[in-house]
Design goal:
The chain is α+β, with helices and mostly antiparallel strands. Helix content is 42%, strand content 22%. Strands 2-1-3 form a three-stranded antiparallel beta sheet, with helices on one face. β1 and β2 form a beta hairpin. The protein binds zinc ion (ZN).
């Protein structure tokens, strides 16, 4: 299983899981479409891959506590 979690002032912590990265992407995408409509598919994939811009957001300020990348679960 693969996992990822999103922390935001608007919804607290939400955990996502998927059998593989593709299923996990679909779970995250279903959430971001509603909660973070500005995020593109490419940005969501960057977040799962642990891109530098997301790592710094996930470890500071309002998104602090989010997972810096997708992980094995
Ligand atoms: Zn979120």
């Amino acid at each position: 299983m693969r996992g990822f979690h999103c922390v935001d002032p608007s919804h607290g912590r939400i955990d996502f899981t998927g059998a593989d990265d593709e299923e996990l992407f679909e779970e995250i995408k279903a959430h971001t479409t509603k909660a973070h409509p500005d995020l593109t598919d490419g940005q969501v994939r960057d977040m799962m891959a642990g891109a530098d811009w997301w790592r710094s957001m996930a470890t500071s300020a309002q998104n602090s506590g989010s997972s810096p990348s997708a992980y094995d679960k």
